Amino acid sequence: MKKFKKLLTLGLILTIVMTGCGTKAGNENHETNEMPTSEAQITAQPSTGTEPATTPTGLPEDTTENNETKYPLTVTDTMGTTITFENEPQTMISFSPSITEILYALSLSDKLIGRTDYCDYPAEALSIESIGDFYNPDIEKVVSLAPDVVLASSLWTEDVIQKFKEVGITVVVANEDKDVAGIYGMIDLIGQIFNCQDNSAKLVETMKTQIEDVTKKVASLPKKTVYYVVGFGEYGDYTAGGDTFIGNLLTLAGGDNIAKNVSGWSYTLESLIDADPEVIILDSSMKDSFISSDNYKDLSAVKNNQVYSIDNNLLERQSYRVADGILEVAKILHPEAFQ
């Protein structure tokens, strides 16, 4: 039973991190909590943050003319599926919090007719009808809304996608990648499909400029060892390994990720104690129970008051707001560079 619970906990943590569904997994009691709703600013453009330019993936096959999409448009999504749009889609449903954030940033909210329970940013998204849970989509409800297209996470299984196809719903699976380039590709793809390439190009350029600004400021500074808490407690310790999306963000922010040589998310308490990072970063919902735990109280970061909380959605949701997340982490690691 304990082995089953451990596997279940790991599966939950990985799904939450990869989808950015915003629940807090892996605190001392492994409770699943609601996402924080204290998103301070609601904006159609990113407010801060950034990263080096890389070639986006998952771009449409067709070219554009005068910054306008030429229809019919054929694209290939993350699953390798080819989809042709005869005309510009007028309605859509988002099954991903990160995609929902991007839609609002691209001023496409007027086309959004459905979202998941987890799509809570910006606050205006809460006024859009919820079609329920990410994991078990209500296909009948989606059919009743008759969207021109459904935008989904790459964690959806082929079985789920096939069920939508069987009822005539067009599904585009957006990219979930190991680095920020995947976000650029997602934004470009959405811009092509919905004929808003000017906005998508500006959003990508803004992200790149912001991230480059951060990386330049921290490039010459000594890197502090850092540990990002994905989960902890009775069933194990989980962090962002070197080949993960969050691991990439820690590096861009000028951190030396103590788990950089680990693949995936699973870590050990012994490794954490041996590495004894200078800085620990976690979601605000975890901080009190983490620093009070006997397992972690002797870590230097805990003793030296170097455990910092952050809105985990800024790092775990693969949207334009990761630029803000990189900036926040960089300010924690290198405050002198931002004075």
UniProtKB/TrEMBL annotation:
Matches recorded under InterPro entries: ABC_Transporter_SBP, ABC_transptr_periplasmic_BD, Vit_B12_bind_prot
Chain spans, region Disordered: 25-70
Signal peptide residue numbers: 1-25
Stored PROSITE patterns: FE_B12_PBP (PS50983), PROKAR_LIPOPROTEIN (PS51257)
Record's keyword terms, sorted: Signal
Bias (Polar residues): 34-57
CDD domains found in the cross-reference section: YvrC
Transmembrane annotation, as ranges: none
Domain Fe/B12 periplasmic-binding: 91-337
Stored SUPFAM superfamilies: Helical backbone' metal receptor
One Pfam short name: Peripla_BP_2
GO aspect biological process, one term: cellular response to iron ion
Family: Belongs to the bacterial solute-binding protein 8 family.
PANTHER family hit by this protein: MOLYBDATE-BINDING PROTEIN MOLA, VITAMIN B12-BINDING PROTEIN
Protein name per UniProt: Periplasmic binding protein
The organism of origin for this protein: Lachnoclostridium phytofermentans (strain ATCC 700394 / DSM 18823 / ISDg)
Organism ancestry: Bacteria, Bacillati, Bacillota, Clostridia, Lachnospirales
